[in-house]
Design a protein that fits this description.
globular; 363 residues; 7-stranded antiparallel beta sheet; 9-stranded antiparallel beta sheet; alpha+beta
């Protein structure tokens, strides 16, 4: 019995000593890791800025198949949030500030331990240098965990290193796997649609569509309006020099309707038109190349553009359908005038025949 008492006292003293040791350990930490990712700064920033992509590269999500991730309505930019549950614990992360193509600041809570996390993106030779930095105060339970597993720098730093490696691998394939095909002359069918129109930075259009498309779709569901195809964007103007475009972000509907006065969602109708069609398979970062190839095709084939709009993009397979950018499909339509549509020249001496005159309302 004495031996058992001694063993019990020894274990008790060991436990107390260990607890005192843990309690006296420094609870604050700062961990930083960097890596050169072989893709552009804008692509990297946009990918990290959307929490729906984190399952593809964040180490604790990739390695734990049981992790369940939950997303609110906003997953991009300031105010975006993500929650998860897994074997290694539960947590939340929220974006508090962003500087486009430069940095993202977030706050994370993982089983009581709070982190301030910052992503910084810098152009460098061969791609973009991304720096991931976290600082915070460890909870008592996390102090125990880190003490048993080699310290916070090893645990958190190891997760950062794996995540950055996953990010490089994922982006290298997903962003750079693409195909552009100029399909040629087609007739784009018309449709009634709902829209929001405004002037946007060209670099922000994809981000804006991810906010506006769900908003219009929700409006349709709430008002029992039947959809009629994939969402699209009308580019009324597209000015590469200023980096601005006047756009309408649109969702096609089955039947034309009238929206209430003062609503930020308006109704309109797209008329059928002749167009040169180009299909982009892959990430939207290749849009400029698709535009260039389309314009070259139009010029080489001596086709006359129709200036009613710059072009139209239909998001046939998009992020709402599948996460992987390499599997997206975007159809682009550039209005053109048929070769036999040259305007008829009427001599000044010719008087119009009232019986054959066509009015604007009849066209």
């Amino acid at each position: 019995m004495k031996i058992l008492k001694y063993i019990f006292l020894l274990l008790l003293l060991s436990f107390i000593s260990f607890s005192v040791f843990i309690a006296t350990q420094k609870g604050s930490f700062t961990i930083e890791r960097s890596k050169v990712i072989h893709t552009s700064k804008a692509d990297l920033y946009n990918y990290v800025n959307d929490y729906q992509n984190w399952e593809d590269f964040m180490a604790f999500m990739v390695e734990d198949a049981t992790t369940r991730t939950h997303y609110p309505k906003t997953t991009i930019g300031k105010g975006a949030k993500c929650m998860w549950e897994g074997i290694d614990g539960n947590g939340t992360i929220q974006t508090f500030s962003v500087k486009e193509n430069d940095s993202i600041t977030q706050k994370m809570n993982w089983d009581g331990t709070e982190f301030n996390t910052t992503w910084v993106f810098k152009d460098t030779l061969g791609g973009t240098k991304v720096t991931l930095k976290s600082s915070g105060e460890m909870s008592f339970s996390y102090k125990i965990y880190t003490a048993l597993h080699g310290g916070a720098n090893r645990i958190i730093g190891g997760l950062f290193e794996k995540s950055l490696a996953n990010l490089d691998k994922s982006l290298d394939y997903e962003i750079n796997t693409y195909q552009i095909k100029v399909n040629g002359l087609v007739q784009k069918l018309g449709t009634p649609y709902l829209k929001q129109s405004f002037t946007s930075k060209i670099s922000s259009i994809v981000k804006n569509t991810r906010i506006v498309f769900p908003k219009i779709i929700t409006f349709c569901k709430q008002n029992k309006i039947e959809l009629n195809g994939k969402p699209f964007v009308i580019y009324h103007t597209y000015d590469e020099k200023s980096g601005l475009a006047k756009i309408s972000i649109c969702v096609p509907i089955k039947e034309a309707i009238m929206t209430s006065y003062g609503s930020d969602i308006m109704s309109d109708e797209l008329e059928s038109f002749s167009a040169i069609k180009t299909t982009l398979y892959g990430d939207y970062s290749h849009t400029k190349e698709a535009l260039k190839k389309s314009k070259n095709y139009i010029n080489q084939n001596v086709i006359t553009p129709d200036s009613k709009i710059a072009h139209l993009e239909v998001y046939t397979i998009n992020k709402l359908d599948i996460k992987n950018p390499s599997k997206w499909k975007t159809e682009m339509y550039f209005p053109v005038k048929p070769k036999n549509s040259a305007p008829k020249v009427v001599p000044k001496t010719e008087e119009p025949n009232p019986e054959t005159e066509t009015t604007a309302s009849e066209i």
